[in-house]
Amino acid sequence: MSESTFVPYQRETYSGDEILQRSKRYFEWLDTRRSLRMFSDRPVPRVVIENILKAASTAPSGAHKQPWTFCVIGDPALKAKIREAAEEEEYKSYNGRMSEEWLKDLEPFETNWQKPFLEVAPWLIIVFKKIYDLEEGQKQTNYYVSESVGIATGFLLTAIHHAGLVALTHTPSPMNFLSKLLQRPENERPFLLIPVGYPPEDAAVPPLNRKTLEEISVFFE
Q1: Nearest CA to 87 among 173, 168, 166, 169?
Q2: Which of 35, 150, 187, 215 is the most exposed place for a label (fewest CB within 10 A)?
């Protein structure tokens, strides 16, 4: 049996009142995060987005395959094309694809098929999931792809919030147009379209309440 190639893991840990206060402060800070459909066109430096992506890439993944690609769009012409294609799909959704129940559930958000934020936000991050990898023309299996990419997206949204920026998890359906516009390879599928930027001065959000701890958890002690 070969010797382990593992390396030591070291990091700071906490206990007592400190761990309680840290967990409480983190929740209170993260609870201020909201999804916005309104963005300022104020520029965000590319290096900030790069750091956010590196933070997202620290997420765990099945067999450490890291089955994600983050396509970052800042070019105004390409953003305009993405908006045009997204609105075409959204118009069909709001005018026939969505059920009456779905449309009613969306009423508190005052959404419609028009998506101007896709051009206003300084950056669009399109998250692609890699169904499989290609190495020297050979398919390599990726494991728990949707789960892994979902976790990485959560890290991404948290990093955006930590930078003082806002985002929206936009899901125009179907999203195949993104693969075509960005000329992505066959092994990638669009997962989420996330506008990123500063909130405008007149930013507003619907008065929503999150589910309580009792509604989202069951403890077995």
Answers
A1: 173
A2: 215
How many residues are present in the chain? Answer: 221
- Report the chain (221 residues): mean pLDDT per 10 consecutive residues: 84 94 97 96 98 98 98 98 96 94 93 96 98 92 98 98 97 93 96 98 94 97 95
* Cα separation, 37 vs 25, whole angstroms: 27
**Contact in structure between 130 and 191 (CB atoms under 8 Å):** no
Structural domains of the chain ordered from first start? 38-88+115-198 (3.40.109.10)
Distances (CA, A) of 99 to 95, 174, 182: 10, 16, 30
pTM of the full structure:
0.94
Spatial CA neighbour of 175 closest among 194, 162, 193: 193
Residues 83, 116: contact at Cβ < 8 Å? yes
